[in-house]
Amino acid sequence: MDGGGGPTDRVRVELGARSYDILIGAGVIDRAGTLVGPLLRRDRVLVVTDETVARLWGGRFEAALAAADIAAETITVPAGEVTKSFAWLERLCAACLDRGLERGDLIVALGGGVVGDLAGFAAAILLRGVRFVQVPTTLLAQVDSGVGGKTAIDMPQGKNLVGAFHQPSLVIADTATLDTLPPRQLRAGYAEVVKYGLIRDRDLFAWLETGGPALLGGDAAARGRAIGESCRAKAAIVAADEREAGERALLNLGHTFGHAFEAAHGYGDRLLHGEAIAVGMVLAFALSVRLGLCPADDAARMRAHLAAAGLPVELSAIAGADWTADRLIALMQADKKVAGGRLTFVLARGIGDAVVMGEVDTAAVRDLLDDALRR
Ligand SMILES: NC(=O)c1ccc[n+]([C@@H]2O[C@H](COP(=O)([O-])OP(=O)(O)OC[C@H]3O[C@@H](n4cnc5c(N)ncnc54)[C@H](O)[C@@H]3O)[C@@H](O)[C@H]2O)c1
Ligand SMILES: [Zn+2]
């Protein structure tokens, strides 16, 4: 199938009546009008975006809608995690209602994971739920947050603590939008791509070892393949376990550690999510080696690849001066994935073979963190 600028990949997320397609390709947003049109009950949509994405891609997106005679009303929020708040949710809901949002209307989230989570949550609760379309413009959003239906805002108590499962009706992932993404953001999103290989696709990981540099360097074919494989991996896991009763927890590889690092830094540009989980995945593999689950060679290999991709792999490289193992463990215990106060980790028996471990010995985690902070 040919899209605006190149071949388009289509990944189906199978969820019965809530199934949807993810379209991936360079220039695919230029077909947004013909893709979104069939979903509409009237010729207008509300587009939610942030200031940066509005400047870079908003005009082109609106033009694609206009070409199909669809009127777009664009609501722009500031860029950054700060908008994943009740205050901005309220403003966004009011802006949608002021523009005459109806039950049959569709909201488009054009931007990174922040816009997707915020606009997706607004769509989940406005008028008790309206449909929405994800148009992710960061690598992280294209391979992760744009797919799977988790929407949320943050609370002073922690990230993503208020939200809803609300699946999009369509995902349009234009790989060309990544051309304007700062390299650091691209690398952070790449950590999530590596994650899919580490969870259960050793072949994908092996391909990334050679294809990763091309992807990060801007090669369109490598990007398309990596995003397609990542979306297939996530789609399969979400289809099997939409609400994270079991298998979906595998997607949290590196995240029990990583969320604690993000929380310790207070969320912001100092440590990006993907950077935090790169170190978190390294520690998850190191813990797996210490517990006798994983061959040391596999841990060394995944670490080397993340480092080669320009991601941090040492806890001491990202740690604040006042970090201690106990403080990090307390933050992990405050994470929403905790059940009955016990720490749950995704560990690995090797590259491509992750397992959820419900009862990990806190002393082993403390020793690991102590050693990692001292290095
Ligand atoms: N819902 C989920 O399943 C899920 C999964 C993972 C992460 N998340 C959430 O996603 C968020 C992080 O997403 P993110 O990394 O995309 O952050 P983001 O949305 O803040 O985007 C990062 C930065 O890049 C800018 N940007 C976006 N697209 C651009 C482009 N094409 N060119 C240039 N700049 C661009 C943004 O304006 C922003 O400044 C977090 O809030 C996290 O909690 C959600
Ligand atoms: Zn993540």
Number of strands: 11
Beta content comes to 15-25%
Shape: globular
**Reading side by side through the largest sheet, how are the strands ordered?**
1-2-9-6-5-3-4
Helix fraction by DSSP (H/I, runs of at least 4): 40-55%
Mean pLDDT: 94
What can be said about the biggest beta sheet? 7 strands, mixed
Rg to the nearest angstrom?
20 Å
* SS content category: alpha/beta
Low-confidence stretches: none
Any ligands, ions or cofactors bound here, and which? nicotinamide-adenine-dinucleotide, zinc ion
Count of helical segments? 14
- For the terminal residues, how far apart are their CA atoms? 51 Å
Task: Summarize the helix and strand pattern as letters.
Answer: EEHEHEHEHEHEEEHHHHHHHHEEH
Q: Summarize this, please?
A:
By secondary structure, the protein is α/β, with parallel strands linked by helices.
